[in-house]
Amino acid sequence: MNPVIEPEKERRLVFQGYQTLRTKIVSGEYLPGTRLKLDTLQQSLGLSSSPLREALNRLVVEGLVEAHEGRGFRAATISIAELHELTHLRLLLECDALRRSVTLGDEEWEGRVVAAAHKLRSGNAAIDAEDWSERHRNFHLALLSGCGFPRLMRFCETLFDQAERYRRIARLSTHHRKKNVEHRKLEDAALKRNANAAVKILSEHIRKTADRVVDVLREAEATPPEKTRDGK
Length: 232
Prior knowledge:
The chain has helices at 7-27, 38-45, 49-62, 80-104, 107-122, 129-144, 150-170, 179-191, 195-221, and strands spanning 35-36, 65-68, 72-75. With 232 residues, it is mainly alpha-helical.
């Protein structure tokens, strides 16, 4: 029997498990389809089953974990069909949030965009991919952060992180885009308050990444699948 845990401590443990698992899934440390066994996770994360189950259920709601009755949890699988849906939703919501930000954003919004863009340019994906990915996420979300709709921002954050799993796959492609140029153009258009140009650049940016991932996934479909690993 698990010991009784105070509500506040329970919430902290749930959040700790949620954040750790979410990072491992989005980063690809737990590959799509990886079994997330409670006993293994308890040992590796140092958490009891109750907060772990709650954390996993939260990730189910976000679409990053799948719950299979009688078979436990797995890191969500990926597919070309889901990627198309994610891309469609990102184009709808992120472009709307960007247009609103460019139109309504104040000086604090401008400051967040400039700071995030500077940090992104200072990062080096070849040296530290995880650090660059975090800077990349912060830049994109800073651009959207002036939209004025907190719920829209939460949706955009969730979709971005789901798409991040696919972007990691795109790194397998031998064709590398000049993303720094795209990000600079996006920053310039946003700060010049040119909403139409900013939205066009963002749309092309999202579509190009999706197209690269589709190419990689189609190549993978032509090769025998590897056995699913257990989460450790």
